[in-house]
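Lab meeting, action items carried over

1. Structure of the two-component assembly. Owner: GW. Status: complete.
Input record:
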Amino acid sequence: MEPPFPAGLTLSMAAAITTPLAVTHRAAALPRATHDAAWVRWLLTGIALLFVGFFLALPLAAVFTEALRRGLGAYLASFRDPDALAAIRLTLLAAAIAVPCNLVFGVAAAWAIAKFNFRGKSVLTTLIDLPFAVSPVISGLVYVLIFGLQGWLGPWLQDHDLRVIFAVPGIVLATIFVTFPFVARELIPLMQAQGNDEEYAAITLGAGGWQTFWHVTLPNIKWGLFYGVILCNARAMGEFGAVSVVSGHIRGETNTMPLHIEILYNEYNFVAAFAVASLLALLAIVTLVLKTFIEWKHAAARGDVS
Amino acid sequence: MSATSTQRSVLPGFGLSLGFTLFYLGLIVLVPLSAAFLKTAGMSWAAFVEAVASPRVLASYRVSFGASFLAALVNVFFGLVVAWVLVRYPFPGRRVVDALVDLPFALPTAVAGIALTAIYARNGWVGRFLEPHGIRVAFTELGIFIALTFIGLPFVVRTLQPVLEELEPEIEEASASLGAGRGQTFARVLLPELLPALLTGFALAFARALGEYGSVVFISGNMPMRTEITPLLIITKLEQYDYRGATAIAVVMLVVSFLLLLLINLLQKWSRRFQQA
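Predicted assembly:
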């Protein structure tokens, strides 16, 4: 059924990328019996566009409109606030630690789960998804229970003058927790679909384990990897609930961008709040564009680009 | 499949990768989550019930479960329409709309929260048209519902899209050739095929909405007993240094989340068997 395409990469990407843009113009090729009447098409397209417009496009437009409400000068002035700059720095720092950690984990987990058979594999896969099922607030709470003053390690940390909760380490940990599954869940189905044949061939030809990984596996999974990383990064920079619980909201010290937005907003400093928000909205747009680009590349590789 | 055992012995790195995976999973996820259960295990049963079933907590369940349920339901309907249109009808800008569907995944919840509040506030783009009709969205249950609808939409669309893609045109042709109208074909042939995916999408959107915090707190007004969602109540208890109370509620929510996760896994298994059959 599938059109012939270069083996390996293509089919598996479809399985991996959980939101496949293998959405091609198959509709055009469908026979008439599966076509809807024109008025149905117009009506449904209208409803869909209206819904997407109201619920998705409008909020996005509102961010930029509100940010520029008092003009470009006021907008730019928002970024001269040292607290805003500190928040941006902290957000970048947290993502710069959390994303590589979960990247290494994702590759390791995918290697173990996709390349080998062992008991309890499906349980392990479910456990990896667990952080997605947990409320962000609870993700932060559990670290307070361990590292907080009343927590398991609280007294020990205090004796050694170390702070995790209401400090940067707690923010990083909470960020790692909420972005935990992204890379792994992208890679596992991708590598499962690719199978072991190419690695097997490399090993047979005398390549070492790392050599095989770098020269055979990595090139095959690079787009899936990139895909997982950009989604992981978007969530890492935008996380609010979990970070809110562990941060302590100390201005200029433990405020990430989303937390800084909350403070500004609650102070009725709307232009500044939306100015910082506009940066995160831009990040979201860049993420979506990159995501679409990767899916388009994948569709092109599949040979059925629209 | 028979070759698997040979390959397993040849490919290196099993011990290292699995060992690291289990270590990291335990350190980051399992040990912290178990802390919540252990903390609650130290409470007496009466104290636990007191913490998780006081009138204010019960009111927060009503708000959270009610609004999440309604939002997921609305998303099932509109999500189906959006997915159907994206898969079946080529129209200009389809790719942009398709990309936009993922916005709730990519846009930080706090940003969505203040943007929705700005739109639905009394003088906002939409709020100013609703206000004269006595409809208030911001700082009411309706606002919570709107925020939860926003964050839930992609779950339904992305669950349905691949299933719609895979539908064989033959079954629709067969239905048409046997004399069924388009509506009949949809209700009797397509909808049953889509049911597992619709239910999965509903469960995913519902589960996400239950735990949602960032997009809701700005628009909800956070009035105890009326517009206070359960995740917010957990934070409130934490800020009052009531760690036991906060953890007890968190355990209730965790159990609900795990049950939903289990349900979703079962639904997906059913869905897969459905497609193979």
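2. GW to write a short summary for the group page. Key points so far: Chain A has 15 helices and no strands. Confidence is low (pLDDT under 50) at residues 1-30 of chain A.
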